[in-house]
Design brief:
With 139 residues, the chain is mainly alpha-helical. Among the domains are: 46 residues; 51 residues, no CATH class. The protein has 7 helices and no strands. Helix 1 runs antiparallel to helix 2 and helix 5 crosses helix 7. It is rod-shaped. The termini are far apart.
Length: 139
């Protein structure tokens, strides 16, 4: 991108009727660069340069609060947001939520590190009630 001063010079020389090749020679820039700055901007080009507001933006605080409360499917979250006026897509929501979930899961760890998992039975056989053979015992 050219400095504003050079862009102004390009446009001034163009208004004076100086040919593109001559403007490029005088300013030491490529002809295509001159063309870029003398070409009239279309409404579509102007819109493309403006940053768009995200459809998620008005709902960020709500989403963060709901994620902090615990795991939630994006589909359930989408339904809640739709009730609150969200008009964005499921994919937009999913793209917003996924990196935040990864960060949260990295923050949380096992509340009882080093202790057995509660879903395993007393003997670790996985049936939850402690009955049955211990798979680590050999007969």
């Amino acid at each position: 991108m050219l400095a504003d001063g050079i862009v102004n010079q390009v446009r001034e020389l163009q208004r004076e009727g100086v040919p593109i090749r001559e403007i490029a020679r005088r300013l030491g820039i490529a002809r295509n660069t001159v063309r870029k700055y003398v070409r009239p901007r279309t409404a579509a080009a102007a819109r493309a340069e403006r940053p768009r507001a995200s459809k998620i933006a008005p709902f960020r605080e709500y989403i963060e609060t709901r994620l902090a409360e615990g795991p939630r499917s994006c589909l359930a979250l989408l339904e809640e947001l739709r009730e609150r006026g969200y008009t964005g897509s499921y994919t937009t929501l999913k793209r917003y939520v996924q990196p935040r979930r990864r960060r949260r899961s990295a923050w949380h760890s096992d509340p009882n590190p080093g202790e057995g998992h509660s879903h395993l039975g007393e003997n670790g056989n996985g049936n939850g009630n402690g009955s049955g053979p211990d798979p680590t015992e050999h007969p």
